[in-house]
Amino acid sequence: MLSNLTKRVITAVIIFPLVISIILYxxxxxxxxxxxxxxxxxxxxxxxxxxxxxxxKKSFIFxxxxxxxxxxxxxxxxxNLWIFLIIPSSLLWAYTIFYIIRLKDVLPKKSFNNxxxxxxxxxxxxxxxxxxxxxxxxxxxxxxxxxxxxxCDIAAYFSGKFFGKKPFxxxxxxxxxxxxxxxxxxxxxxxxxLFCAYQNYDFIFTIKLFFLSLLxxxxxxxxxxxxxxxxxxxxNKDSGKILPGHGGILDRVDSLLSSAPTFLIxxxxxxxxx
Length: 274
Hints:
With about 270 residues, the chain is mostly helical. It has helices at about 5-25, 30-50, 55-80, 85-100, 115-135, 140-165, 180-200, 205-235, 250-270. It is globular.
């Protein structure tokens, strides 16, 4: 019987090169198809956790709105108006982070009202919008972001496993530690500096990308925590079982939910396009 860590490694070794290859191949149809699959699988997982048992009608409405939001996202991207989706999403993430920081206890919820439909739709559509817009601007930026977040997750896991003592938002996720969080920041900072040195970027560009990478790393931790909070609210260990050792799709894109819009808006406004 394979251990959970072994399953995680095998799954990552298969999926990571596949995703990077699709991006490098630079086929717009494949990239959009991949993003649609990811968003809709994540939406179905959210629907199953939050709405399905409560009301199948609400679950159907949620998935329908997701479909419409992806269609509208493509229109915004085509007309270079993606900022009208990304800015509201970023503001909502700022509120979510503030809410998580102030949260003292988590009690399971029996029902989720329409506010949560709006919340989840905005988060998932902004994930699609930000990643696809980044791809159109510079596919290298998407690859950098995916690598950065993957390194963050790996560093947080092993730093927490070997050095973790102090809980990091224990009410939401008892296994996450401050040492894991700091380990991910240090590792991502080093990755950013090594990448800039390899690319021979100038000093100003290097500094901007370094601090942007740290900001994205911090924000990504709250994306992870937000999904952990959702699982606590719905009494679920994982969002799904589609990925061996990893759980559901939502468990894999949780960090990107918050980090992708952040990376897009700051890399674009600061002219840090890789």
